[in-house]
Write a structure and sequence with these properties.
By secondary structure, the protein is an alpha/beta fold. The strands form five sheets. It has an eight-stranded parallel β-barrel. Strands 18, 19, 20, 21, 22, 23 and 24 form a seven-stranded antiparallel sheet that branches. A five-stranded parallel sheet has the order 15-13-14-16-17, with helices on both faces. α3 links the parallel β3 and β4. α3 runs parallel beside α4. The two termini are 36 Å apart. The protein binds S-adenosylmethionine. The site of S-adenosylmethionine has 19 residues, from β13. This is 13757_t:CDS:1.
Protein backbone atom coordinates (compact mmCIF):
# COMPACT_ATOMS: atom_id res chain seq x y z
CA UNK A 1 0.00 0.00 0.00
CA UNK A 2 1.90 2.95 -1.23
CA UNK A 3 0.10 5.99 -2.56
CA UNK A 4 -0.25 7.66 0.75
CA UNK A 5 1.12 10.93 1.98
CA UNK A 6 -0.61 12.15 5.06
CA UNK A 7 -1.09 15.66 3.78
CA UNK A 8 -1.44 16.55 0.14
CA UNK A 9 1.64 18.60 -0.80
CA UNK A 10 0.40 20.99 -3.46
CA UNK A 11 -3.24 20.34 -4.16
CA UNK A 12 -5.20 22.65 -6.34
CA UNK A 13 -8.53 21.41 -7.56
CA UNK A 14 -9.06 24.28 -9.90
CA UNK A 15 -5.74 24.96 -11.55
CA UNK A 16 -5.55 28.46 -12.95
CA UNK A 17 -3.52 28.79 -16.06
CA UNK A 18 -1.43 31.81 -16.85
CA UNK A 19 -1.43 33.36 -20.32
CA UNK A 20 1.01 36.05 -21.42
CA UNK A 21 1.26 38.19 -24.51
CA UNK A 22 4.23 38.83 -26.74
CA UNK A 23 3.57 41.66 -29.18
CA UNK A 24 6.90 41.14 -30.88
CA UNK A 25 7.46 44.91 -31.10
CA UNK A 26 11.06 46.02 -31.23
CA UNK A 27 10.33 49.44 -29.72
CA UNK A 28 7.44 48.92 -27.32
CA UNK A 29 6.09 51.61 -25.07
CA UNK A 30 6.13 49.80 -21.76
CA UNK A 31 3.24 51.55 -20.08
CA UNK A 32 0.87 51.28 -23.02
CA UNK A 33 1.82 47.67 -23.81
CA UNK A 34 1.34 46.55 -20.22
CA UNK A 35 -1.89 48.52 -19.76
CA UNK A 36 -3.31 47.10 -22.96
CA UNK A 37 -2.30 43.53 -22.06
CA UNK A 38 -3.96 43.84 -18.66
CA UNK A 39 -7.10 45.17 -20.29
CA UNK A 40 -7.12 42.29 -22.76
CA UNK A 41 -7.00 39.81 -19.87
CA UNK A 42 -3.36 38.69 -20.10
CA UNK A 43 -1.34 37.82 -17.03
CA UNK A 44 2.05 39.04 -18.21
CA UNK A 45 3.90 40.41 -21.21
CA UNK A 46 7.15 39.52 -22.93
CA UNK A 47 9.29 42.61 -23.44
CA UNK A 48 12.69 43.06 -25.03
CA UNK A 49 15.29 44.26 -22.56
CA UNK A 50 17.03 46.73 -24.84
CA UNK A 51 16.04 48.71 -27.94
CA UNK A 52 17.42 47.61 -31.35
CA UNK A 53 19.88 50.50 -31.18
CA UNK A 54 21.85 48.46 -28.69
CA UNK A 55 22.92 46.23 -31.54
CA UNK A 56 25.60 48.81 -32.30
CA UNK A 57 27.79 47.14 -29.69
CA UNK A 58 27.81 43.87 -31.58
CA UNK A 59 29.66 44.80 -34.72
CA UNK A 60 32.34 47.30 -33.83
CA UNK A 61 34.93 45.51 -35.92
CA UNK A 62 32.70 44.98 -38.91
CA UNK A 63 31.89 48.61 -39.36
CA UNK A 64 35.65 49.07 -39.51
CA UNK A 65 35.99 51.24 -36.44
CA UNK A 66 39.61 52.26 -36.37
CA UNK A 67 38.88 55.42 -34.48
CA UNK A 68 40.96 55.26 -31.30
CA UNK A 69 38.27 56.95 -29.24
CA UNK A 70 35.59 54.59 -30.37
CA UNK A 71 37.80 51.62 -29.61
CA UNK A 72 38.29 52.97 -26.13
CA UNK A 73 34.55 53.39 -25.67
CA UNK A 74 34.10 49.83 -26.79
CA UNK A 75 36.69 48.50 -24.37
CA UNK A 76 35.13 50.51 -21.54
CA UNK A 77 31.76 49.09 -22.44
CA UNK A 78 33.11 45.54 -22.41
CA UNK A 79 34.64 46.16 -19.02
CA UNK A 80 31.16 46.70 -17.64
CA UNK A 81 29.95 50.17 -18.40
CA UNK A 82 26.34 50.72 -17.20
CA UNK A 83 23.49 50.81 -19.68
CA UNK A 84 22.53 54.17 -21.11
CA UNK A 85 18.96 54.86 -20.06
CA UNK A 86 17.93 55.35 -23.70
CA UNK A 87 18.98 51.81 -24.57
CA UNK A 88 16.72 50.20 -22.00
CA UNK A 89 13.11 49.29 -22.80
CA UNK A 90 12.22 48.74 -19.16
CA UNK A 91 13.89 51.43 -17.10
CA UNK A 92 12.73 50.52 -13.60
CA UNK A 93 11.02 47.86 -11.52
CA UNK A 94 7.48 49.23 -11.97
CA UNK A 95 6.21 46.33 -14.12
CA UNK A 96 8.55 43.63 -12.86
CA UNK A 97 5.76 41.39 -11.65
CA UNK A 98 4.02 41.60 -15.02
CA UNK A 99 6.81 40.85 -17.45
CA UNK A 100 9.32 38.35 -18.73
CA UNK A 101 12.43 39.86 -20.35
CA UNK A 102 13.51 38.77 -23.78
CA UNK A 103 17.22 38.48 -24.44
CA UNK A 104 18.02 39.90 -27.89
CA UNK A 105 17.87 37.22 -30.52
CA UNK A 106 20.47 38.97 -32.69
CA UNK A 107 23.34 38.07 -30.41
CA UNK A 108 25.47 35.21 -31.66
CA UNK A 109 27.43 33.46 -28.99
CA UNK A 110 28.85 30.88 -31.35
CA UNK A 111 29.87 33.23 -34.11
CA UNK A 112 33.19 32.39 -35.77
CA UNK A 113 33.99 36.09 -35.36
CA UNK A 114 35.84 36.58 -32.09
CA UNK A 115 34.55 40.07 -31.32
CA UNK A 116 30.93 39.19 -32.11
CA UNK A 117 31.19 36.25 -29.77
CA UNK A 118 32.72 38.37 -27.00
CA UNK A 119 30.27 41.22 -27.51
CA UNK A 120 27.33 38.82 -27.56
CA UNK A 121 28.42 37.43 -24.22
CA UNK A 122 28.76 40.90 -22.74
CA UNK A 123 25.33 41.87 -24.02
CA UNK A 124 23.67 38.75 -22.65
CA UNK A 125 25.33 39.17 -19.26
CA UNK A 126 24.29 42.82 -19.11
CA UNK A 127 20.72 42.10 -20.12
CA UNK A 128 20.29 39.28 -17.65
CA UNK A 129 21.87 41.17 -14.81
CA UNK A 130 19.56 44.11 -15.53
CA UNK A 131 16.59 41.72 -15.25
CA UNK A 132 17.98 40.46 -11.96
CA UNK A 133 18.44 44.02 -10.75
CA UNK A 134 14.85 45.07 -11.41
CA UNK A 135 13.48 41.84 -9.93
CA UNK A 136 12.25 40.02 -13.02
CA UNK A 137 12.01 36.33 -12.39
CA UNK A 138 12.25 34.93 -15.92
CA UNK A 139 14.11 35.58 -19.16
CA UNK A 140 13.27 34.22 -22.58
CA UNK A 141 16.44 33.20 -24.39
CA UNK A 142 16.87 32.60 -28.14
CA UNK A 143 16.80 29.14 -29.73
CA UNK A 144 20.38 27.80 -29.83
CA UNK A 145 22.02 27.33 -33.19
CA UNK A 146 23.58 24.02 -34.14
CA UNK A 147 26.96 25.05 -32.76
CA UNK A 148 25.84 25.94 -29.30
CA UNK A 149 28.80 25.21 -27.09
CA UNK A 150 29.74 28.74 -26.22
CA UNK A 151 26.11 29.79 -25.75
CA UNK A 152 25.64 26.94 -23.26
CA UNK A 153 28.90 27.77 -21.51
CA UNK A 154 27.86 31.41 -21.08
CA UNK A 155 24.40 30.55 -19.77
CA UNK A 156 25.91 28.04 -17.37
CA UNK A 157 28.32 30.61 -16.03
CA UNK A 158 25.60 33.26 -15.65
CA UNK A 159 23.24 31.22 -13.44
CA UNK A 160 25.20 32.01 -10.31
CA UNK A 161 25.34 35.73 -11.02
CA UNK A 162 21.57 36.15 -11.34
CA UNK A 163 20.25 33.64 -8.83
CA UNK A 164 16.61 34.74 -9.04
CA UNK A 165 16.26 34.76 -12.83
CA UNK A 166 14.92 31.59 -14.48
CA UNK A 167 16.11 31.00 -18.02
CA UNK A 168 13.49 29.84 -20.51
CA UNK A 169 15.17 28.64 -23.69
CA UNK A 170 12.95 28.95 -26.72
CA UNK A 171 12.70 25.58 -28.50
CA UNK A 172 10.40 25.04 -31.49
CA UNK A 173 8.70 21.65 -31.83
CA UNK A 174 9.84 21.38 -35.41
CA UNK A 175 12.50 23.17 -37.36
CA UNK A 176 10.88 23.79 -40.66
CA UNK A 177 13.21 23.99 -43.57
CA UNK A 178 11.80 24.26 -47.04
CA UNK A 179 14.85 22.78 -48.69
CA UNK A 180 15.62 20.03 -46.22
CA UNK A 181 12.00 19.31 -45.33
CA UNK A 182 10.83 18.91 -41.72
CA UNK A 183 13.51 18.19 -39.14
CA UNK A 184 11.49 16.96 -36.25
CA UNK A 185 13.92 15.56 -33.78
CA UNK A 186 16.71 18.00 -34.21
CA UNK A 187 15.22 20.48 -31.77
CA UNK A 188 15.01 17.97 -28.95
CA UNK A 189 18.56 16.85 -29.59
CA UNK A 190 19.75 20.44 -29.59
CA UNK A 191 17.98 21.09 -26.32
CA UNK A 192 19.44 17.91 -24.91
CA UNK A 193 22.97 18.96 -25.82
CA UNK A 194 22.39 22.43 -24.40
CA UNK A 195 21.03 21.31 -21.04
CA UNK A 196 23.69 18.63 -20.71
CA UNK A 197 26.36 21.29 -21.14
CA UNK A 198 24.53 23.31 -18.50
CA UNK A 199 24.59 20.25 -16.23
CA UNK A 200 20.78 20.16 -16.07
CA UNK A 201 20.73 23.35 -14.07
CA UNK A 202 17.42 23.77 -12.21
CA UNK A 203 17.07 27.35 -13.44
CA UNK A 204 17.14 26.19 -17.04
CA UNK A 205 13.84 25.25 -18.64
CA UNK A 206 12.07 25.22 -21.96
CA UNK A 207 9.73 27.68 -23.65
CA UNK A 208 8.29 25.21 -26.15
CA UNK A 209 7.12 26.84 -29.34
CA UNK A 210 4.17 24.96 -30.82
CA UNK A 211 4.51 24.88 -34.58
CA UNK A 212 1.98 24.71 -37.39
CA UNK A 213 3.01 21.12 -38.18
CA UNK A 214 3.13 18.74 -35.27
CA UNK A 215 5.46 15.73 -35.09
CA UNK A 216 4.22 12.23 -34.29
CA UNK A 217 2.72 11.56 -30.87
CA UNK A 218 5.69 9.69 -29.43
CA UNK A 219 7.93 12.62 -30.35
CA UNK A 220 5.48 15.02 -28.76
CA UNK A 221 5.39 12.87 -25.62
CA UNK A 222 9.11 13.27 -25.10
CA UNK A 223 8.62 16.90 -24.19
CA UNK A 224 6.56 15.94 -21.16
CA UNK A 225 9.72 14.53 -19.59
CA UNK A 226 11.38 17.92 -19.88
CA UNK A 227 11.20 21.01 -17.68
CA UNK A 228 8.48 22.91 -19.55
CA UNK A 229 8.04 26.33 -18.03
CA UNK A 230 6.44 28.07 -20.99
CA UNK A 231 4.53 27.19 -24.13
CA UNK A 232 4.62 29.65 -27.01
CA UNK A 233 1.59 29.69 -29.28
CA UNK A 234 2.19 31.86 -32.37
CA UNK A 235 -1.04 33.45 -33.57
CA UNK A 236 -0.40 31.93 -36.99
CA UNK A 237 -1.03 28.37 -35.77
CA UNK A 238 -4.65 29.25 -34.95
CA UNK A 239 -7.39 28.51 -37.47
CA UNK A 240 -10.53 30.64 -37.80
CA UNK A 241 -13.89 29.24 -36.77
CA UNK A 242 -17.09 30.02 -38.69
CA UNK A 243 -17.40 33.35 -36.91
CA UNK A 244 -13.78 34.33 -37.52
CA UNK A 245 -12.53 33.66 -33.98
CA UNK A 246 -9.17 31.91 -33.45
CA UNK A 247 -9.36 28.20 -32.64
CA UNK A 248 -6.87 25.34 -32.77
CA UNK A 249 -7.00 22.23 -34.92
CA UNK A 250 -8.13 19.04 -33.13
CA UNK A 251 -4.56 17.76 -32.86
CA UNK A 252 -3.26 21.05 -31.55
CA UNK A 253 -6.14 21.14 -29.04
CA UNK A 254 -5.28 17.67 -27.78
CA UNK A 255 -1.65 18.60 -27.38
CA UNK A 256 -2.40 21.92 -25.67
CA UNK A 257 -4.87 20.19 -23.32
CA UNK A 258 -2.13 17.74 -22.35
CA UNK A 259 0.24 20.65 -21.80
CA UNK A 260 -2.29 22.40 -19.57
CA UNK A 261 -1.87 19.59 -17.03
CA UNK A 262 1.74 20.69 -16.57
CA UNK A 263 0.61 24.25 -15.82
CA UNK A 264 3.17 26.03 -18.00
CA UNK A 265 3.00 29.76 -18.71
CA UNK A 266 1.31 30.11 -22.09
CA UNK A 267 2.56 32.87 -24.35
CA UNK A 268 0.49 34.16 -27.24
CA UNK A 269 3.06 35.30 -29.74
CA UNK A 270 1.71 37.92 -32.15
CA UNK A 271 3.31 37.29 -35.45
CA UNK A 272 1.64 40.32 -37.03
CA UNK A 273 1.34 43.64 -35.25
CA UNK A 274 -2.30 42.99 -34.41
CA UNK A 275 -4.52 39.90 -34.31
CA UNK A 276 -4.31 37.42 -37.17
CA UNK A 277 -8.02 36.65 -37.04
CA UNK A 278 -11.09 38.60 -38.05
CA UNK A 279 -13.01 38.40 -34.76
CA UNK A 280 -12.28 38.75 -31.10
CA UNK A 281 -9.17 40.91 -31.28
CA UNK A 282 -6.07 39.99 -29.27
CA UNK A 283 -8.16 39.01 -26.24
CA UNK A 284 -9.65 36.09 -28.18
CA UNK A 285 -6.42 34.06 -28.01
CA UNK A 286 -6.18 34.05 -24.22
CA UNK A 287 -9.94 33.50 -23.94
CA UNK A 288 -9.59 30.44 -26.13
CA UNK A 289 -6.79 28.96 -23.99
CA UNK A 290 -8.86 29.58 -20.85
CA UNK A 291 -11.81 27.94 -22.60
CA UNK A 292 -9.66 24.83 -23.30
CA UNK A 293 -8.70 24.79 -19.64
CA UNK A 294 -12.31 25.11 -18.46
CA UNK A 295 -13.48 22.34 -20.73
CA UNK A 296 -10.82 19.78 -19.83
CA UNK A 297 -12.30 16.27 -19.50
CA UNK A 298 -13.49 15.51 -15.97
CA UNK A 299 -10.87 13.98 -13.75
CA UNK A 300 -11.10 10.26 -13.08
CA UNK A 301 -11.11 9.13 -9.45
CA UNK A 302 -7.43 8.30 -9.68
CA UNK A 303 -6.62 11.71 -11.19
CA UNK A 304 -8.64 13.43 -8.45
CA UNK A 305 -6.72 11.56 -5.81
CA UNK A 306 -3.42 12.24 -7.54
CA UNK A 307 -3.92 16.02 -7.61
CA UNK A 308 -0.96 17.58 -5.90
CA UNK A 309 1.03 14.33 -5.79
CA UNK A 310 2.34 14.59 -9.34
CA UNK A 311 6.12 14.21 -9.45
CA UNK A 312 6.19 14.36 -5.67
CA UNK A 313 8.85 11.96 -4.36
CA UNK A 314 7.69 10.01 -1.34
CA UNK A 315 9.58 7.44 0.66
CA UNK A 316 7.86 4.08 0.40
CA UNK A 317 6.02 2.94 3.52
CA UNK A 318 7.56 0.22 5.62
CA UNK A 319 4.54 -1.12 7.49
CA UNK A 320 6.48 -4.05 8.94
CA UNK A 321 9.28 -1.98 10.43
CA UNK A 322 7.18 1.13 11.21
CA UNK A 323 3.77 1.52 12.72
CA UNK A 324 1.53 3.46 10.36
CA UNK A 325 -0.43 6.48 11.53
CA UNK A 326 -4.19 6.70 11.63
CA UNK A 327 -4.31 9.27 8.83
CA UNK A 328 -2.47 6.81 6.58
CA UNK A 329 -5.06 4.13 7.25
CA UNK A 330 -7.78 6.66 6.53
CA UNK A 331 -6.33 7.21 3.06
CA UNK A 332 -6.29 3.42 2.48
CA UNK A 333 -9.95 3.20 3.28
CA UNK A 334 -10.92 5.71 0.62
CA UNK A 335 -10.00 3.26 -2.12
CA UNK A 336 -13.17 1.22 -2.47
CA UNK A 337 -11.84 -0.50 -5.62
CA UNK A 338 -9.14 -2.31 -3.70
CA UNK A 339 -11.59 -3.61 -1.10
CA UNK A 340 -14.10 -4.60 -3.79
CA UNK A 341 -11.44 -6.67 -5.54
CA UNK A 342 -10.45 -8.37 -2.30
CA UNK A 343 -14.10 -8.99 -1.49
CA UNK A 344 -14.62 -10.62 -4.88
CA UNK A 345 -11.49 -12.73 -4.51
CA UNK A 346 -12.55 -13.98 -1.07
CA UNK A 347 -16.05 -14.68 -2.34
CA UNK A 348 -14.75 -16.80 -5.21
CA UNK A 349 -12.21 -18.58 -3.07
CA UNK A 350 -14.96 -19.52 -0.67
CA UNK A 351 -17.26 -20.72 -3.42
CA UNK A 352 -14.50 -22.95 -4.75
CA UNK A 353 -13.54 -24.16 -1.35
CA UNK A 354 -17.06 -25.25 -0.47
CA UNK A 355 -17.16 -26.94 -3.81
CA UNK A 356 -20.69 -25.69 -4.03
CA UNK A 357 -22.93 -23.16 -5.61
CA UNK A 358 -23.81 -19.74 -4.42
CA UNK A 359 -27.19 -21.03 -3.16
CA UNK A 360 -25.43 -23.50 -0.97
CA UNK A 361 -23.39 -20.73 0.46
CA UNK A 362 -26.44 -18.60 0.98
CA UNK A 363 -28.23 -21.50 2.63
CA UNK A 364 -25.33 -21.82 4.92
CA UNK A 365 -25.49 -18.16 5.71
CA UNK A 366 -27.91 -18.73 8.56
CA UNK A 367 -25.55 -21.07 10.21
CA UNK A 368 -22.52 -19.19 9.14
CA UNK A 369 -22.31 -17.01 12.16
CA UNK A 370 -21.64 -20.00 14.28
CA UNK A 371 -19.48 -21.77 11.73
CA UNK A 372 -17.12 -19.05 10.70
CA UNK A 373 -14.07 -18.37 12.69
CA UNK A 374 -12.19 -15.28 11.68
CA UNK A 375 -8.89 -14.21 13.16
CA UNK A 376 -7.76 -10.66 12.43
CA UNK A 377 -4.07 -10.20 13.09
CA UNK A 378 -2.35 -6.85 13.53
CA UNK A 379 1.06 -6.00 14.89
CA UNK A 380 0.59 -2.21 15.09
CA UNK A 381 -0.46 -1.60 18.72
CA UNK A 382 -2.21 1.68 17.94
CA UNK A 383 -4.16 0.31 15.00
CA UNK A 384 -5.16 -2.48 17.29
CA UNK A 385 -6.81 -0.06 19.70
CA UNK A 386 -7.68 3.22 18.05
CA UNK A 387 -11.19 4.06 17.07
CA UNK A 388 -11.65 5.22 13.54
CA UNK A 389 -14.73 4.96 11.35
CA UNK A 390 -15.19 1.56 9.84
CA UNK A 391 -16.47 0.60 6.43
CA UNK A 392 -17.78 -2.95 6.25
CA UNK A 393 -15.73 -3.94 3.28
CA UNK A 394 -14.57 -7.42 3.91
CA UNK A 395 -16.22 -8.76 6.94
CA UNK A 396 -19.81 -8.57 5.76
CA UNK A 397 -19.19 -11.21 3.18
CA UNK A 398 -17.18 -13.46 5.34
CA UNK A 399 -19.33 -13.48 8.39
CA UNK A 400 -22.61 -13.91 6.54
CA UNK A 401 -21.66 -16.58 4.13
CA UNK A 402 -18.93 -18.72 5.31
CA UNK A 403 -18.03 -21.62 7.39
CA UNK A 404 -14.31 -21.55 7.21
CA UNK A 405 -11.59 -20.56 9.43
CA UNK A 406 -10.19 -17.52 7.81
CA UNK A 407 -7.18 -15.82 9.11
CA UNK A 408 -6.99 -12.28 8.03
CA UNK A 409 -4.29 -9.77 8.08
CA UNK A 410 -6.83 -7.05 7.86
CA UNK A 411 -6.04 -4.05 9.84
CA UNK A 412 -9.50 -2.52 9.86
CA UNK A 413 -8.68 0.11 12.36
CA UNK A 414 -10.08 0.07 15.83
CA UNK A 415 -9.90 -3.65 16.06
CA UNK A 416 -10.88 -3.74 19.71
CA UNK A 417 -13.66 -1.20 19.37
CA UNK A 418 -14.96 -2.88 16.30
CA UNK A 419 -15.07 -6.20 18.04
CA UNK A 420 -17.09 -4.66 20.82
CA UNK A 421 -19.45 -2.76 18.52
CA UNK A 422 -19.89 -4.82 15.38
CA UNK A 423 -18.22 -8.16 15.15
CA UNK A 424 -18.87 -9.61 18.57
CA UNK A 425 -17.70 -13.21 18.66
CA UNK A 426 -17.45 -13.55 14.89
CA UNK A 427 -13.89 -12.28 14.87
CA UNK A 428 -11.03 -13.02 17.16
CA UNK A 429 -8.61 -10.19 17.12
CA UNK A 430 -4.99 -10.96 17.69
CA UNK A 431 -2.23 -8.53 18.52
CA UNK A 432 0.82 -10.21 17.06
CA UNK A 433 3.34 -10.29 14.31
CA UNK A 434 1.97 -12.93 11.96
CA UNK A 435 5.40 -14.48 11.57
CA UNK A 436 5.53 -15.44 15.23
CA UNK A 437 1.89 -16.02 16.11
CA UNK A 438 1.00 -19.45 17.43
CA UNK A 439 -2.36 -20.10 15.81
CA UNK A 440 -4.90 -22.12 17.80
CA UNK A 441 -6.00 -23.89 14.60
CA UNK A 442 -5.06 -24.00 10.92
CA UNK A 443 -6.83 -21.80 8.40
CA UNK A 444 -8.46 -22.49 5.05
CA UNK A 445 -7.84 -19.03 3.70
CA UNK A 446 -5.18 -16.49 4.50
CA UNK A 447 -5.97 -12.95 3.35
CA UNK A 448 -3.33 -10.27 3.42
CA UNK A 449 -2.68 -6.87 1.97
CA UNK A 450 1.01 -6.24 2.39
CA UNK A 451 1.78 -5.21 -1.17
CA UNK A 452 4.09 -2.38 -2.13
CA UNK A 453 4.31 -0.55 -5.43
CA UNK A 454 6.89 -3.05 -6.60
CA UNK A 455 4.97 -6.03 -5.21
CA UNK A 456 7.30 -7.37 -2.55
CA UNK A 457 8.91 -4.14 -1.34
CA UNK A 458 6.84 -3.94 1.87
CA UNK A 459 8.09 -7.42 2.77
CA UNK A 460 4.93 -9.32 1.99
CA UNK A 461 6.89 -12.49 1.05
CA UNK A 462 8.77 -12.50 4.34
CA UNK A 463 5.56 -12.01 6.37
CA UNK A 464 3.57 -14.61 4.47
CA UNK A 465 6.39 -17.17 4.58
CA UNK A 466 6.14 -16.94 8.33
CA UNK A 467 2.35 -17.00 8.39
CA UNK A 468 1.80 -19.88 5.98
CA UNK A 469 2.53 -22.40 8.71
CA UNK A 470 -0.99 -21.82 9.99
CA UNK A 471 -2.54 -22.39 6.57
CA UNK A 472 -3.96 -25.90 5.99
CA UNK A 473 -2.38 -27.98 3.28
CA UNK A 474 -4.29 -27.02 0.12
CA UNK A 475 -5.32 -23.74 1.75
CA UNK A 476 -5.60 -20.54 -0.25
CA UNK A 477 -3.56 -17.38 0.03
CA UNK A 478 -5.15 -14.17 -1.20
CA UNK A 479 -3.11 -12.80 -2.94
CA UNK A 480 -1.96 -15.90 -4.76
CA UNK A 481 0.92 -14.14 -6.50
CA UNK A 482 2.40 -10.79 -7.45
CA UNK A 483 4.61 -9.96 -10.41
CA UNK A 484 6.93 -6.97 -10.72
CA UNK A 485 7.49 -4.99 -13.94
CA UNK A 486 9.98 -2.30 -14.85
CA UNK A 487 10.27 0.29 -17.60
CA UNK A 488 12.99 2.81 -18.47
CA UNK A 489 11.95 6.36 -17.61
CA UNK A 490 13.09 9.76 -18.76
CA UNK A 491 12.37 12.61 -16.38
CA UNK A 492 14.81 15.43 -15.93
CA UNK A 493 12.52 16.92 -13.30
CA UNK A 494 12.63 13.88 -11.02
CA UNK A 495 16.32 13.42 -11.69
CA UNK A 496 17.03 17.02 -10.71
CA UNK A 497 15.00 16.69 -7.57
CA UNK A 498 16.99 13.71 -6.43
CA UNK A 499 20.26 15.34 -7.51
CA UNK A 500 19.41 18.45 -5.49
CA UNK A 501 20.10 16.50 -2.29
CA UNK A 502 23.73 16.28 -3.46
CA UNK A 503 24.37 12.90 -1.88
CA UNK A 504 24.56 9.30 -2.89
CA UNK A 505 21.99 8.12 -0.38
CA UNK A 506 19.13 9.85 -2.20
CA UNK A 507 20.15 8.25 -5.49
CA UNK A 508 20.15 4.85 -3.89
CA UNK A 509 16.63 5.17 -2.54
CA UNK A 510 13.48 4.09 -4.31
CA UNK A 511 10.62 6.60 -4.31
CA UNK A 512 6.89 6.26 -4.69
CA UNK A 513 5.78 8.80 -7.24
CA UNK A 514 2.82 9.68 -9.44
CA UNK A 515 4.63 10.41 -12.69
CA UNK A 516 3.74 13.50 -14.64
CA UNK A 517 6.87 15.11 -16.05
CA UNK A 518 8.14 11.78 -17.29
CA UNK A 519 8.06 9.72 -20.42
CA UNK A 520 8.45 6.00 -20.78
CA UNK A 521 11.25 5.12 -23.20
CA UNK A 522 9.87 1.60 -23.66
CA UNK A 523 6.96 -0.56 -22.51
CA UNK A 524 7.26 -2.28 -19.11
CA UNK A 525 8.78 -5.78 -18.96
CA UNK A 526 8.23 -8.44 -16.33
CA UNK A 527 11.10 -9.06 -13.92
CA UNK A 528 9.94 -11.52 -11.25
CA UNK A 529 7.10 -13.08 -9.35
CA UNK A 530 6.27 -14.29 -5.82
CA UNK A 531 3.71 -17.01 -5.12
CA UNK A 532 1.86 -17.99 -1.94
CA UNK A 533 1.78 -20.34 -0.25
CA UNK A 534 5.32 -21.24 -1.12
CA UNK A 535 6.01 -24.95 -0.75
CA UNK A 536 9.68 -24.61 -1.65
CA UNK A 537 10.86 -23.08 1.59
CA UNK A 538 13.14 -24.91 4.01
CA UNK A 539 11.66 -24.48 7.47
CA UNK A 540 12.75 -25.26 11.00
CA UNK A 541 10.83 -27.41 13.47
CA UNK A 542 8.44 -24.50 14.22
CA UNK A 543 7.64 -24.05 10.54
CA UNK A 544 9.65 -20.83 10.18
CA UNK A 545 11.91 -20.27 7.16
CA UNK A 546 15.54 -21.09 7.93
CA UNK A 547 16.81 -18.20 5.84
CA UNK A 548 15.52 -15.71 3.28
CA UNK A 549 17.55 -16.63 0.18
CA UNK A 550 14.43 -17.99 -1.52
CA UNK A 551 13.12 -14.43 -1.69
CA UNK A 552 16.07 -12.98 -3.58
CA UNK A 553 15.46 -12.39 -7.27
CA UNK A 554 17.60 -11.64 -10.31
CA UNK A 555 16.44 -10.61 -13.72
CA UNK A 556 17.86 -9.23 -16.94
CA UNK A 557 15.58 -7.57 -19.48
CA UNK A 558 16.09 -5.93 -22.85
CA UNK A 559 14.07 -2.92 -23.91
CA UNK A 560 13.49 -1.62 -27.40
CA UNK A 561 13.30 2.13 -27.02
CA UNK A 562 10.76 4.09 -29.04
CA UNK A 563 12.76 7.29 -29.53
CA UNK A 564 16.17 8.55 -28.53
CA UNK A 565 16.09 9.85 -25.02
CA UNK A 566 17.78 10.09 -21.66
CA UNK A 567 17.36 7.35 -19.14
CA UNK A 568 17.00 8.91 -15.70
CA UNK A 569 15.64 5.96 -13.80
CA UNK A 570 13.52 2.85 -13.71
CA UNK A 571 9.80 2.81 -13.02
CA UNK A 572 8.40 -0.19 -11.17
CA UNK A 573 4.87 -1.61 -11.11
CA UNK A 574 3.13 -4.76 -9.91
CA UNK A 575 0.29 -6.96 -10.98
CA UNK A 576 -1.20 -9.27 -8.37
CA UNK A 577 -3.43 -12.28 -8.87
CA UNK A 578 -5.62 -12.11 -5.81
CA UNK A 579 -7.41 -15.28 -6.74
CA UNK A 580 -7.78 -16.98 -10.15
CA UNK A 581 -8.80 -14.24 -12.60
CA UNK A 582 -9.26 -11.51 -10.02
CA UNK A 583 -6.36 -9.22 -10.64
CA UNK A 584 -5.24 -6.11 -8.86
CA UNK A 585 -2.81 -4.13 -10.95
CA UNK A 586 -0.89 -0.88 -11.24
CA UNK A 587 0.78 -1.93 -14.50
CA UNK A 588 -0.06 0.94 -16.91
CA UNK A 589 -1.70 -1.44 -19.41
CA UNK A 590 -3.83 -3.40 -16.94
CA UNK A 591 -4.33 -0.85 -14.15
CA UNK A 592 -7.36 -1.66 -11.96
CA UNK A 593 -9.96 0.94 -12.83
CA UNK A 594 -10.30 3.76 -10.28
CA UNK A 595 -7.83 2.22 -7.86
CA UNK A 596 -5.43 4.72 -6.29
CA UNK A 597 -3.81 2.88 -3.41
CA UNK A 598 -0.48 2.53 -5.17
CA UNK A 599 1.59 4.92 -7.24
CA UNK A 600 4.50 3.50 -9.24
CA UNK A 601 7.91 3.16 -7.68
CA UNK A 602 10.90 5.05 -9.10
CA UNK A 603 14.51 3.92 -8.88
CA UNK A 604 16.66 6.91 -9.89
CA UNK A 605 19.97 6.34 -11.65
CA UNK A 606 22.93 8.26 -10.30
CA UNK A 607 24.29 8.72 -13.81
CA UNK A 608 21.81 9.37 -16.59
CA UNK A 609 22.39 7.76 -19.99
CA UNK A 610 21.61 8.97 -23.46
CA UNK A 611 20.14 6.28 -25.70
CA UNK A 612 20.03 6.88 -29.42
CA UNK A 613 17.32 5.03 -31.32
C1 LIG B 1 -0.72 -1.92 3.96
S1 LIG B 1 -1.54 -2.11 5.46
C2 LIG B 1 -3.06 -2.83 4.91
C3 LIG B 1 -4.11 -2.73 5.93
C4 LIG B 1 -5.45 -3.42 5.59
N1 LIG B 1 -5.26 -4.82 5.27
C5 LIG B 1 -6.16 -2.70 4.46
O1 LIG B 1 -6.09 -3.18 3.35
O2 LIG B 1 -6.73 -1.64 4.69
C6 LIG B 1 -0.69 -3.48 6.15
C7 LIG B 1 -1.06 -3.74 7.60
O3 LIG B 1 -0.43 -4.95 7.98
C8 LIG B 1 0.19 -4.78 9.24
N2 LIG B 1 1.34 -5.69 9.26
C9 LIG B 1 2.47 -5.60 8.50
N3 LIG B 1 3.27 -6.63 8.77
C10 LIG B 1 2.65 -7.40 9.70
C11 LIG B 1 3.01 -8.57 10.38
N4 LIG B 1 4.17 -9.18 10.18
N5 LIG B 1 2.13 -9.08 11.27
C12 LIG B 1 0.95 -8.47 11.50
N6 LIG B 1 0.55 -7.33 10.89
C13 LIG B 1 1.41 -6.80 10.00
C14 LIG B 1 0.59 -3.31 9.27
O4 LIG B 1 0.74 -2.82 10.59
C15 LIG B 1 -0.60 -2.67 8.56
O5 LIG B 1 -1.63 -2.36 9.45
Amino acid sequence: MEATATSNPNTSNCPRIVVGLSRGQEKPNVSSVTAEARELGYDFVILPITFPSYRRFLFEQLIGSVDVNEKKIMEEWRKGHPFCREDLVVKNADVSDFMVGQVSNWINLDSPDHSIRINSEVIMRQQLSWLGHIGISAALLPFPSDSLMNYARCVNSIFGTVPYVNMWIKIPLILEDEILGLKETVTWERWNKFRTLCENHVKLSIALEVTQNLPEDNILDRWFAEPLKAVILPTTIFLSNAKGFPVLSKRHQTFVRKLIKYKPNFIIDCVADGPNHASGGLAAYQEYIHYLNRTMPELTQVEQFALGYHDFLQSPLQPLMDNLESSTYEVFEKDSTKYALYEKAIHHALLDHTNGSEEMILEAAEKAQKLVRVYAIEKNPSAFVTYVRYKDHLFVLITQELRFNIILNIRKFSLQNKKAEVWGDKVTIVFSDMRFWKAPEKADILVSELLGSFGDNELSPECLDGAQKFLKSGGISIPTSYTAFISPISSSKLYNEVAAYKDLAHFETPYVVMFQSASELAKPCQVWRFEHPNSNISVDEDGNPINNFHNTRYSKVTFNIRESGILHGIAGYFESILYKDIILSIHPDTHSVDMFSWFPIFFPLRVSFFFAK
